[in-house]
Amino acid sequence: MLKEFREFAMRGNVVDMAIGIIIGAAFGSIINSLVSDVIMPPIGLILGKVDFSNLYLTLQEGVIAGPYGSLVDAQEAGAVTLNYGVFINTIVSFVIVAFAVFLLIRSINRLEREEEAPSEEPNTKECPYCVSVISINASRCPHCTSQLEA
């Protein structure tokens, strides 16, 4: 049983999938940093110095009564919060990841189409007399028996 499991785990697809998951997790953390540290601060500045990671709605006060200066303060006080700013950051992260995957798949599909598209010379032609499809090497049409030019 251990030998079968080792064979299963070492198959190319399983190893490729594991590598993909590891790379995907690293890519996700890069995208999260890109969104929270690079993209959202200028957007927040344009919208009036808004820090999206601190946008929340207090549903229930915590042990220490509000108002709270930040989301971290509210959570430390035990307040129940609806963190819509974090949700906005997550949506932006998802859109960026989805767009990057789209570009990757698009380029892979383009490469596959280029590989599949070797142009072949036609091996048939139409008879000029009866318009039947015949071999390109034919000297006489098999349908109407007309003599064809070479």
Concise synopsis of the structure shown:
The protein is mainly alpha-helical. Helix content is 55%, strand content 9%.
Structure characterization notes:
By secondary structure, the protein is mostly helical. The protein has a domain at 120-150. Helix content is 55%, strand content 9%. It has 4 helices and 4 strands; from the N terminus they run ααβαβαββ. It has helices at residues 2-9, 12-46, 71-76, 84-116; strands at residues 57-60, 80-82, 124-126, 133-135. A two-stranded antiparallel sheet has the order 1-2. Strands 3-4 form a two-stranded antiparallel ribbon. β3 (124-126) and β4 (133-135) form a beta hairpin. α2 crosses α4. The termini are far apart.
Report the mean per-residue pLDDT as an integer.
82
Globally, the shape reads elongated
Q: Let me know the number of strands.
A: 4
Please give the radius of gyration in angstroms: 32 Å
Order of helices and strands: HHEHEHEE
Class inferred from helices and paired strands: mainly alpha
For the biggest sheet, the summary is: 2 strands, antiparallel
